[in-house]
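[job 4417] fold queue: 2 targets
>>> target A
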Amino acid sequence: MGQTYINNDFTGDFTMIIEAIRELGVKEFVCDSSPDTEETFNRSYKSLSKDNPEITWEEVSPMIKNLQAEYDALAYSRKREAEYPSIQECVHAILDDDLTALQEKRQAIKTKYPKS
């Protein structure tokens, strides 16, 4: 399996760029910044293997937008997960025969963060 070499800038945009490049079938590459134009992409991206497909900013840019849309569409799920009862709380509810309260708490969270 190939390696990807990146800098330590793990901002959302940079992560989406790396994922977009991987989704286009590139396995070994360097991307040392967060490009947002064809010019900055051409400066920051370098393939490290002749087996990698040739890619362009025109291919990467829409892929980034698609990945961001998919990520944004699941915002409700991440918010729910952060507030749902822990495994330990669930176990205690089961052992204490308090499933009704547990389900009420979960439903309140689902109501607070509905699917879009």
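>>> target B
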Amino acid sequence: MPERRLYDTCFFVEYFFSEDKELLRKFKQELRSVKERMVSVLTVHEIHRINLKREGRDVADLRSSAIRSDFIVVDVNYETAVKSAELRSKHHMPMADSVIAATAQIYGCPLISDDAHFKEINGLKIKWCA
């Protein structure tokens, strides 16, 4: 059983909105197989905003609360801020993605994502469930 993994926003978008039953089965299997499931506080921000727009406040609150109870929510600290700024500058990526990538690197765990720009970052382990 893997020790820990960090989950990107795209994982939750697919998890909450996909109609692909096989993909959802793989996602659930992935979640059950990991000892420490981690998520950046910026992923919580992004998925809460997406849920507000698509589903409304009640669903957004419910899903964010579920993430909070089932995942370790990792805040942004000084080390993450500096590392993410360096990644953002080098790879010209959005701020939230640079913070998420920096968090995975600092914690030394794979990032569960299918965003292509993460593949450009040396030393960042990427995994997807599909």
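[job 4417] complete. Note on B: The mean pLDDT is 95.
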